[in-house]
Specification:
The structure holds two protein chains of two kinds. By secondary structure, chain A is mostly helical. Chain A contains four helices and two strands; from the N terminus they run H-H-H-E-E-H. The termini of chain B are far apart. The chains are: A mainly alpha, B mainly alpha. The interface between A and B is medium-sized, with 20 and 24 residues.
């Protein structure tokens, strides 16, 4: 898992968005925008290209939305983080935490 | 107005979606459309209060990311297609895959199969039939007028066929058009280069550029296309090589009496159309291999008979050219062509087997496979180049010291190098193999054997040249070429199909 990090920012934000609960595509798009404070706004091409990669790598899973199953037409798809995906996110968070710790240390040294 | 604009951008998004690979659209197209429509409605609602900014921003983001996303999706689809097992007709393939043995697909209706023969029939009916009519005084058009008619018909019909094929997810018949698509794209540049006169001293770039383009770049790209298609779908590779087989035979008709030349050309392209229809209809690689090999032999026999029976050499040709042709002359024209075309037909299909083994050999196996593939592309490119070589080609080659020797080297060396690279790659792949199952090892050894003798089988007969028929002994070409042909056919047809796939499994 450690070999898989660092992740691209968009990939990390998508996976982070799924860390809390399963989401469908539009919700992921909005959540990524919110997580990045409006800085990262995904197009459908970028979002679904990334989702396909994550599905192929086994980091996320795609299922029918049970809440939507009773309505007319095809049920919406929701995306869920797999255990492997969760471990990758945790590895990336750990990496970023270490980086931030080092950055804090260096900037504190500079202030002394 | 804003809601109209939102509907319009949703439609535009639908058009952009069509550029993604079929498999990707099948998986995500509906979701992407729904997500974008929702985003567009929200942006339009926002736009009612804040102006056009949100909607414009949404459109801008889609347009900005679209080229990269489409290229990445196609690249992934291509890799997935190459990685798929031989039992499948892949994403660019047609629907209707059967669950039968490897490379056996469901037959398609005749009306669909006819589309596979259409491009070759068009060449026959426009270029060749009009050529025959002109040769017998039934048509007063000159050859340039015929070329223009042929060009217009091919460009228009190819564009139409590709538009239909694209909408239908690149069905089986579309492979028959691939070479024509390539020609439509490549020819204008070739013509432009040929007419571009660059007086740049002794390098003669004005000659080198068009010569290099036609004899190096074009064969290389064609060889790449054949190998890539062969890795994805062997049936499509067979359909794709049909016109290339005819082009390989074309130089044999040089110095043939014009009416005989156009007449046998007409028959050959009609036979090619029929072959493509039958291959597409049957959906069987095993039968298809025999059909294309049969077409090659049929065209070869017809062309060599026309050439030896109706030869018209220029008055200043060497004296022995004007001697009455013998049965040996006939055979010496026929056999190298059969071998050269068989390389084009069989090798991409054999590569598929190697690819299956390569993916099971870990990192080293994949490296071996890549090396083998690169060698094969080089070998096929040299094969195609050899058939189209003319002494008036690259100026730099003529400067080396006599065009015959130099031109032979020009395609013999890459062919031999390509064969050796293929051999080295297959060797690495075999060394990377895990497990000691006897039949598995034997399958590898056979593949190595086939790839070993290919450069010799191809290079030797072709080195002796098409134009100097009486001076070179060709027996060694046949001694290795004929067993190679037999082994190759055996490997790609049914007996090998079940056997090698069991071994690979």
């Amino acid at each position: 898992v450690v070999e898989q990090v660092p992740l691209r920012e968009a990939t990390f934000l998508i996976m982070l968005s799924l860390a809390g609960e399963p989401k469908h595509g539009y919700a992921i798009m909005q959540d990524v925008e919110a997580l990045s404070e409006g800085r990262v706004r995904l197009s459908t091409g970028t979002l679904y290209g990334a989702l396909k990669r994550l599905l192929d790598d086994g980091w996320i899973r795609r299922t029918d939305d049970e809440a939507d199953a009773t309505g007319p037409g095809r049920p919406r798809k929701v995306y869920t983080l797999t255990r492997l995906g969760r471990r990758v996110v945790e590895a990336e968070v750990e990496r970023l935490r270490d980086l931030v710790a080092v950055a804090r240390l260096r900037t504190a040294e500079g202030e002394l | 107005v804003i809601s109209h604009a939102a509907r319009l951008v949703v439609r535009l998004h639908g058009v952009l979606l069509r550029c993604y690979p079929r498999s990707f659209r099948d998986d995500f197209g509906a979701e992407m459309r729904a997500v974008f429509a929702k985003a567009a409605v929200e942006a339009a609602t926002e736009a009612a209060g804040r102006g056009w900014g949100p909607l414009a921003g949404l459109v801008w983001r889609e347009l900005r990311d679209w080229p990269g996303a489409v290229v990445q999706a196609h690249w992934r689809a291509l890799r997935e297609g190459a990685a798929m097992d031989g039992t499948m007709e892949t994403a660019v393939g047609s629907s209707g895959r059967s669950s039968g043995p490897e490379d056996e697909y469901a037959p398609v209706p005749w009306r669909v199969a006819l589309l596979a023969g259409l491009p070759h029939a068009l060449v026959a009916l426009t270029g060749r039939a009009m050529g025959v009519a002109g040769a017998y005084g039934l048509l007063s058009w000159g050859s340039s007028a015929l070329e223009i008619v042929l060009g217009v018909v091919l460009v228009v019909s190819t564009a139409a066929a590709m538009a239909v094929a694209w909408r239908r997810g690149w069905p089986r018949w579309s492979a028959s058009w691939f070479v024509y698509v390539f020609a439509v794209v490549a020819l204008p540049l070739g013509i432009a280069l040929a007419r571009w006169e660059l007086p740049l001293g002794s390098w003669q770039l004005g000659v080198l550029l068009p010569g290099g383009y036609a004899r190096l770049v074009v064969p290389f790209l064609l060889a790449m296309m054949v190998v890539v298609v062969g890795l994805r779908n062997r049936l499509k590779a067979l359909l794709m090589v049909v016109p290339l087989v005819l082009l390989l035979w074309e130089p044999v008709l040089e110095f043939t009496w014009y009416p005989a030349r156009t007449f046998v050309g007409l028959l050959a392209w009609l036979a090619a159309a029929m072959t493509a229809i039958l291959i597409a209809r049957a959906g069987s690689v095993r039968k298809g291999v025999w059909m294309v090999l049969g077409l090659s032999v049929l065209v070869g026999v017809t062309y060599t008979t026309a050439r030896t029976g109706y030869a018209r050499f220029p008055a200043d040709a060497p004296a022995h050219y004007h001697l009455p042709p013998t049965a040996l002359d006939w055979w010496n024209l026929l056999a190298p062509g059969v071998l050269a075309s068989a390389v084009l037909i069989l090798e991409p299909l054999l590569m598929r087997r190697l690819a299956v083994l390569g993916r099971r050999g870990g990192r080293m196996g994949r490296r071996g496979l890549r090396l083998s593939l690169a060698g094969l592309v080089l070998l096929l490119a040299a094969d195609l180049t050899a058939s189209w070589w003319t002494p008036s080609g690259l100026a730099v080659v003529r400067l080396v010291g006599g065009y015959e020797a130099a031109s032979s080297l020009w395609f013999t060396l890459p062919a031999a190098l390509g064969g050796l690279l293929s051999l080295a790659g297959a060797g690495i792949l075999a060394a990377a193999g895990r497990g000691g199952w006897m039949r598995h090892e034997m399958a590898r050894l056979l593949l190595v054997f086939v790839l070993t003798v290919v450069p010799i089988a191809v290079a030797l007969p072709l080195t002796s040249g098409f134009w100097d028929l009486r001076t070179f002994p060709r027996i060694w070409g046949y001694v290795v070429g004929v067993p190679w042909l037999g082994a190759g056919i055996w490997l790609v047809t049914r007996r090998c199909g079940g056997w090698a796939s069991r071994a690979a499994a």
